[in-house]
Design a protein that fits this description.
By secondary structure, the protein is mainly α. It has helices at about 10-25, 40-50, 55-70, 85-90, 100-110, 125-140, and strands at about 25-30, 35, 75, 80. The strands form 2 sheets. The protein has a two-stranded antiparallel ribbon. It has a two-stranded antiparallel sheet with strand order 3-4. It is globular, with a radius of gyration of 18 Å.
Amino acid sequence: MGEKQWQWTDAWIFVSLVIAHGAGRHRRAASSRRPLGVRLTDVLSTADHLNRAIPDRQEVEVAVRRLVGTGLVSVTDGWFRITPEGEQLWRTRPHAGLATTVDTVQGVLSRRHTPGDADWQLDEAEHAAAVQEYAVRSIPAGRQSPKNHARRD
């Protein structure tokens, strides 16, 4: 992987963070209106909806290290946030259809920023737990047979 070039996966994770945060999945601190951010499960869920794939642990770790190192994203106590600089990048990107948003963001990243390399690691167990939580959340609730709801007179 070219360390000095933004990869498609970096943009995929960034767009997933932005959309998850903007979709209202973020939690707010109890003592303020300031958002805490989004959890890894929400990032994986959004990434799956964008690309029909769940990013593996290494893809997330590398992308987040690069995004945090550039100042576009922050992670604190498992909460992922888009920084003001990241919000600015998102707001000023060329607008295109959702199908090309990741490609567009990769181009914007390449023109405006050099990938960083923050000291951040994603534990294998934490990634596995987030994937499991997403899988459980994604299973549609089972339908009950109409005979189970028969009226009793």
